[in-house]
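Reopening this ticket.

The earlier resolution said the output was attached, but the attachment link was broken on my side. Pasting everything inline this time so it's all in one place.
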Amino acid sequence: MSLNVYAIGASRNIGYYTALRLLEKGATVTFLLRSPTVFNEDAVIQSYVQAGTARLVKGDALNAEDVAQGWEKAIESSQHVDLVLFTVGECGTPTLTLTKGAVLTTADLCTHAILNVLRTIPPSHRAASSQPKIIAISSTGLTPSSHAHHPLPIRALYSWLLPQIHADKLGLERVLAYCAGWEWKAEDGEPREDILPAGWTGQPGTPEQGELKQVLVVRPAMLTDGGCKADKKAGRAYRVGEEDLKNNGYTVSRRDVAHFIVEGALPDWTRWGGKRMSIAY
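Inline output:
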């Protein structure tokens, strides 16, 4: 797999496991990292760094100039980025409170970061024929219609634990839905203005409505640190469904989400690309 990948938020978890699979298949991965030293003791990543296929760029996804620099470094290897892997939010460590559940220091982390990524897409990658694939990790249960498909215990847990984080993921999905030209249901509401301020569509560099043709949003169920069942089990270890899975499952491991991205979505992009997919056991 000779893909050239720009990975944002891949220092650990889904992004990390996905990047490892891609590197193992021969891809080149440029990591945008607030602290490139995070991989100092990672012998596997370091082996790819030495081979020149893992490229570590210091930068913060909340800084548009840093994101633009990441694009430049990613393009250096082949003049074209084939895949943007966006897993911001999965690498942050929230603070747990009794009254607000899990809270991130930056309330608009994912939304702000995806806007920076999209607004800094190089001119050479803007035309429909040259756009990279964009895979972004979101979550199930963000909207009223999605939330209703979950088992009751999960709905209760999400309502307490994840409202702040889901508010940010809703902003992420609203941005991508607009830029990809997807329907946005009125009953799902709009993100809060502290997450996605009014007038965001008119800001410089923001793609036009429907401009992006190669977007996939992956919505995992509650994530676990378990192993990759799909590597050990013949047949389907997890369920994947467009929009919402009926009787949505309780959990899925981060490694299995990475498996779906690399072994399922990318090889069969005509089936999965341009959609919002839920994944669960």
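Reporter confirms the inline version is readable. The CA atoms of residues 179 and 209 lie 5 Å apart. The mean pLDDT is 88.
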